[in-house]
Structures are given as structure tokens and as C-alpha cells.
Amino acid sequence: MWRSAVDRVSILASLRLICPASDEVWGGTMARWAMRTGTAIGLLIVAVPAFGQDRGITYTHYGTPGLLEMPTALSAMDGELAATLSLMDGQQRTALTFQITPRLSGTFRISGTKDYSYPGDPAFDGIFIDRGFDLRYQILDESARLPALAIGLQDFLGSGHSGAEYIVATKAVSDSIRVTAGLGWGRLGSNNGFSNPFGILGDSFDTRSPSTSAMEPEEMFQGDAALFGGVEWAFADNWTIKAEYSSDAYVREADLGLITIDSPLNFGLTWEPLDGVQVGASYLYGNTFGLTATILMNPNDRPMDGGFDSAPVPVSVRPADLRAMTSWNRSALPDEALAAGLAQAMASEGLILSGIEVTDTTARLRYTNTRYRSEAQAMGRLARMLTQGLPPSIELITLEPMKSGIPVSAVTLRRSDLEALETSAGGSEAMFDRARFADAGSSAGLLSVAPAEGPFSWSLGPYLGLVFGPEDDDGLALNGGVEVTASYAFSPNFILGGAVRQQLFNTSDTAPFVPDNDVPGVHPVRRNAPLYALEGTTTIPTLTLAHFARPGPNLYSRVTAGLLEPMYGGVSTELLFKPVDSAWGFGAEVNYVQQRDFDQQFTFRDYDVVTGHGSLYYDFDSGFYAQLDVGRYLAGDWGATMTLDRTFENGWRVGASATVTEVSFDSGMSEGVDYGIRVTIPVDFVLGRPSQRGLSTTLGAPTRDDGQRLDVDGRLFDTVRNGHLSDLEDGWGRFWR
Amino acid sequence: MRGRRGVVAASAALLFLTGCGDQLRSSLVGQVGTRLVPALAGSGPSAEEAAAQAAAMGFGPDAIAANPENYMLFQVGGLGIAGLGRVVSEHDNLRTWLGDSGYSVSFENGLVVATRGFGKDLMAADVASVRAAIDAGGGEAVRLHDYLDSRDQIVQERYACVIASAGPQPVDLGLRQVEAEAFAETCRGTRVQFENMYFIGESGGIIASRQLVSDVVGYLSNNIL
């Protein structure tokens, strides 16, 4: 049932934390006392804020919040990510919807329709695959009198196979019943359509060309309009019945004989067996059964709360007389002995000490955090250890976290602040306010500490690869096997690394060969991906020598040479300018690479190119991160990529990128903007245990050759950002964790 | 042997204190018991290993017997935690105890001001006015609790509290029965209402209590040995 606003301030739950039945058997002092005094022993959650409420939103066959195929005007919870699989006879859809802001949501969807073809195209035998994006903006919140109001664009990038626009209103008429009415265009204006009301703005709104393989943005809100609507009834907890009047006549599908519409009325039932899981059954078009399954996740709702990280070493507070000291006996505790002791203690927290400089009143440590996602948490743990291990006259502690063997910042803390604020309410914020953030200092003066573990490391594990074919109808192929990775660190910032893979399975036993002259002027730089997967049974995906350095203040550099990625080898160079406390950074990358043979060993194909980009990075305070790359792509095409991520302080990232190059709209390519969706989920969010790993996935258009970048490891901005002010501030709540 | 019996008796005291039966008893065996009870029973090599492990962590019977004031019994019903904690830091009025399963609890004048390792921990707290009200025999106080939210931001909760004396009450500490002055603290915030309980010993210190950690974790119960 949906809860009304009144319920939100009422008592929702009462947790009895003491077992009532056990009092007689184990009747302890406290329980007896409590009973005598008539006090209820329990914890009452007296109110839950509105944003904590389930809005009772269910998902459509298109994977959007709504009825069955028609949308509603309500938004999901901010940040919610919904993955939906929808199955019907002859149709299947997979969709990912992200509530980008409280009002704006976006959907990426892959639809498969059996034997579909565009008007004017020849008949097609097979599953027609179409990819599309939706955007929806909620203009008005629901109020006592007014409904929620939203405007949406369905499948507005790409082909426009499902292209539609709509304005929709939704209003709850009781605690459990909600009604929706809307006006649709395009696909949603095809059943019982009438003249476009926007026609009063100009004749161009009156007609709309039929759906073709290239949707034109200027066609939006054109052509006939039609009404749609429906009712949702949450008749029991976790159960919702839905009925709708559809304004989609499935014109092209009906022409092809793929779908018959016997009735515009659709009916369905949605059940939430678990939090975050919805399954639905529906009866559509008067003749078809459909199923949906949706899995919901929200970065704003962590299942493991703060995580079950083990307790840190507590702060050791110096007595006043020791705190007043201005020096310590350096001969009794040589720097080397101090460093060795600290390195050993730090290892228990996954911190590797590389260098230390101590004076009578200051200490500076350079170290690598190998355990905690949040550098701030690693700093908090290290700082507490240092209050235990440093001589008492040392007051200023400077921590220099390293990434890829280079120091990325210097954070200076006062030991007396650490002593005062560990358990104080507001102590995290106060600690942040009193900390100083700067570029890492010079290596001069640092006593170098040899790592306890040797320079060689290796690991063995499984791998999985997903390959998109060069054409839509090639579908996807999955391959996998085992991978051995190994590295040898000549120094922390100079590393020889590589991997060997043995493929054990590949779901595809054929792969089309895309010849070099397939598209004049555009070499097949990526479209032979299936061939790499087919012929690459025993491969060396990477074998590189990488060197990272700090050539100047706020400057970072990388040189990587060797087999850079499965399809290219050569030399990659990069320079990044990024002040510690700035929201922005500039980077430049220049690579000379040659295409590798399909077997991914030591031979190359006859194609080489100079590729590279200038990049601008910007971290908005609002939790968005933007990146603009301008330059020359692998096929030698010039263009730009714009990336926009929503970044959550807890490590989640959900974003989209769009690439346009000089050949994107050429007749030979004719594919328009290349776009992709990427999602990164931090492992510690899921497991509740410290981890630096993230689960990343990228979805997007089929493999193509324009707008392709080199896939080299260790790009600098992602390497250094964790240790810079913006990310440290994001994670500072974990300083005392 | 006195020390070993003491551990068992003290563990039992925790059960009495919190008033829970079989569920707690099994969790006690699961937590402390797996480490200490086999050693007390004195059977088999695994018992020796368990005893050695407990001793290495500072929870050996001899260490407890030598300095019982350095140990405290803790129980968090919602997490199935019931076991011993050892003091690992002490200065001014702040004492931090490390639990035998890796959590820690910090007390300021006997009032919980921080926990770690419980999931939704109390990150920090301001409880000075609560202690002042107890010392005054009752009164009103304001608590501030810091929590870490899903996005790693600190969220501060404010509670208005009333502290009232419940007069002298018998307290079974396992090793001994004592009479203690009992206080109840009723607090109400924007979301959560709870009631803490304190038993003040002859020395003026809190010898047993039940205090809120967070809405998810629930209450922490503790008593001295």
C-alpha cells in the first residue's frame, strides 16, 4: 500500500530488542526493573522522512516507471537504478533506467523484435535489434489538488524504432489507487489519433514521417496525437494491479503481421517478493501474455550501512607534560627503527610505507593504501596509528598517499586535533576544516623504506568477455577462460606487467571478417572484435612497461610501451595538470600504435596510427563529473567525446558518453552519434567489507570504427583523483571510520 | 581456576542483565564460547588452540583473573554479539574497549560515545549533559549522535532526553551481587525514541547499562566483571 503523508509522521515500527518470553527463565535484573517501573523496553522509530518512503512505483515493459506499456508521471527515488527484462511473444526488451536527478530520469534499452523491418526496407528474417535512449522530466510534483506532471522523450537518439513523445499526469485518488492520463505523439499517438494540438503553432506539427532507420530530432511532437491512460491499484502490500488504455497501435508491426491488436486495453499484475525485486505478468493487445522482471538498486541506500570494517586502533592521547615537549631523543630511536616499526604496524591495515621524514615536531609519510576505497578512511586509520607510534613531541603529521607509485597529495593534520576530535560529535567535519591539503612535497629528505613484499606479484583467475558484432543483427557472443596476470616493480612507479589468457569457451564459432577497405577511408579498427575473440585462444592481452612520474608541481606523467591492449601495441604517453584543490584538470595523451594480429600474440597487422586527445576534466560540486576529449581517434578520424557521470560519494558512478567525429555522419558509416552508458558499483557497497574494487559495465551502441579510443591502463586522471581534495571531501565521513 | 569460573559467571551475568534466554545463550556459546568454553572444559587439542587464541588476543583466563577491571561484558542482541571486551585505550574520562570479535566501544564517563564494527555505528556523540543530569540525580539533557549515511556523509541526530532516578536496585554482575542506583534516560529525536538505563555503583561509576547505538544496531548492554 502507498502510505499517505499522514502515515509518515506516525509510528511505523516498534522493535523489541529484549526477548519478552525469556524474562521468566532468565529474568535479569534490568528486565525485572524495567517491568516494575512500567517502562516499555524498546526502540521506537517514530517517523521516517518522506524520501525514505516507497512510492509504490512499478516498471513497464519498456523498463520505465509506469503502467504496462504507457508511462506515468511519477519519478523513482533519486539515484534509483532499475534493470528490467521484458518478454512477450515476438518481442523482448532489456532496459536500464536511472533516476539522474530527483526530476530527471534516463533509460537505455535494447529491444528485439522478431522479423521487424523499417517501412520501405526489405523483409527481414530474424531478431531485429534496436537500441534507444529515453529521457523524462517531471515538471510538477503531486500536490493535494494537482497531479504530478511529466514530459518524456522515448527512443529519441538512434533509430527511433520506438520513437514517441508524451506529456502525462498522475494523481493518487486514495491511499492505494492512482490514475494516469496522457497525450502521446509518434508511437504513442498512433491509436485513435487526432490532429496535433500543436498544429496551431505551425503546419509542420501536423505531419510526421513514418519511423525509419534515422530518427530526426525536429520530428518530435509532430504528427497525430492520441490519448492514453490507466489505473494502478495497490490492493495489498507488494501487489499492484494495473490497467491501461494504450495509444500505441503498433502500426508497422501490424502491417508486417507480427502483432495483432485486438484491444487497446492492457491488464497486468506486479508483485514485489523482495525489496528491490518486481515481477509482473500482463495480458496485452487482447491476445498476448507478457512477463517482466525488474531489479532495483539505489546508491543512496546502502545495504550494509557503513560496513563491518574491523575496529581501528584508537587515538593515543599524550599527557600534557609529553605534549609540551619540543624534541625527542633521536639517538634512542633512530629514524630507521621508527620507520621499520611503523611499516610493520601499517601493513596490518593494508598500508605500504614507502618513505618517511621526521623532525623534532613533524612527520611526513609517503604510503600506498591497498585496502580502503576511501583514501580519507585510510588516512584516518593511519593517523590514529601514528598517535600511538610517533614520539610525543611530533605535532604535525603530513600524509602523502601514492597512486601508481607517485604521491598525489599532502594532507597535514595536527596531532592535538586527532586527540581532541576522535569521539566528538561533529569531529569529522572539524577535522576536515582543520586539515591542510596541498600538492605532495619533494622526495628530498624522505628516508626510503623498502616494501616488505618483493617486487614480483601474480594472480590467477577467470575472465569473461562480451563481444558485439560489427552489425546489429550479429548479436552478442560470450567468451571466457582463465587468465594469469603478473607484474614486476623495478620501483613503485616503474612496472613491468602483463597477462596471458587461455580461452576455454566462445559461444560463437564464426566471425565475419571486415576487410580493410570495407568503408573507404575508415580502417576497421574495432569491428573485427569477433575475429579477435575467435582466433585469440591463447593470447597475451597486455604486456607493458609503464612509468609514472611527477615532472613538476601539479603535473603527472605516464609512459606505457608494449602490447597496450588486445588489439593494439605501441607507445602511449600522457601528461596531466591537476592541482590538488581544483575541480578541474587538463590532460594530453599522444599514442603511436599498430594494430595487432587477431591471434593477439607478438605479430601486427599492416595498420598504424598516431592517436591522442586533449582532455578537460571537471568535477561539479553537485555530484556530477564531466569530461571532454578532443582529438584523433584510432581510425584517424578527428572528433570529440563528451562524458557526464553522476558520482556518488560512496563510490558509485553512473554516466553516459557521446562521441561525434568527422565521419560519424558519412554515408559509409551513417550511424550518427556513438553513445555509451557506464555504471560502476563499488564492491564495499555490496559486501560491507573494505575493498578498492569496483564492478563496472559499459552498455552502448554496436561495435564500430569511428570514434574509437585506445584502451590503455593507468590513465592519469582516474589514477590521481582519489587522493585529491574533491574525492577526499566526498569520503571524509569515513575518516574516523 | 577462579578466573575461569569468573568468565563463565560473568558471561552468565550478561544474560541475566539483558534478560534474554536461549537465543542469547546460544550466541554466547557462538561468540565467547567458541574461544573460551572449550578451554574451560579442558577437552581436546582444539580446546588448547582456542585457549591459546584467546590468550593471544588478551582474553586468556589468567589475564582476566589478574586484571578483571580491564574487562567488560558486552551484548548487542540485534547482532548476536555477546562477549568480553578488553580496555585498549584510556585517558581523561574516555575508555575504549576492544571486543573479542573485532568491534570497539568507547565510553566517556561510562556513556557510549562511539562504536566501530557494528555496521551502523555510533560514529561520535556529545553526552556531557546526560552525565551531568545523572550526577545531579536526574534532569533534562541533550544528546548529539553522529552517524555515517549511505553516501559516506556524517549525519547528526539530536535527542531531547529526560533522566530520572529509579532508586536503588539489585544488580547481578555474575561474580557478585551489588546494590546500585538505577537511572532511566528517555530520549526522543526526529525519527527515533529510545530509553537507556544506567546502574551507578558505590564509586559513582556506571557498573552496568543499556545504551542505544543506532536504530539499526539497537541497544548495547554492558557490565563490569
Describe the structure.
The complex is a heterodimer of chains A (737) and B (225). By secondary structure, chain A is mostly beta strands. Chain A folds into four domains: 5-50, no CATH class; 54-297, Porin, CATH 2.40.160; 320-451, 2-Layer Sandwich (GMP Synthetase, Chain A, domain 3); 538-728, Porin (Beta Barrel). Chain A is built from 13 helices and 35 strands. In chain A, strands 22, 23, 24, 25, 26, 27, 28, 29, 30, 31, 32, 33, 34 and 35 form a 14-stranded antiparallel β-sheet that branches. Chain A has a twelve-stranded antiparallel beta barrel with strand order 3-4-5-6-7-8-9-10-11-12-13-14. In chain A, strand 16, helix 7 and strand 17 form a beta-alpha-beta unit. Chain A is globular. The model of chain A is unreliable at 1-41 and 47-53 (pLDDT under 50). With 225 residues, chain B is an alpha+beta fold. Chain B has one domain (2-224): Beta Barrel (YmcC-like fold), CATH 2.40.360.10. Chain B is built from five helices and twelve strands. Chain B has a twelve-stranded antiparallel β-sheet with strand order 5-4-3-2-1-12-11-10-9-8-7-6. In chain B, helix 1 (2-18) runs antiparallel to helix 2 and helix 2 crosses helix 3 (44-56). The longest helix of chain B has 20 residues, at 22-41. Chain B is globular and about 50 Å long. Residues 1-45 of chain B have low confidence and may be disordered. Chains A and B meet through helix 2, helix 3, strand 2 and helix 9 of A and helix 1, helix 2, strand 2, strand 3 and strand 4 of B. Strand 2 of chain A pairs antiparallel with strand 10 (192-200) of chain B.
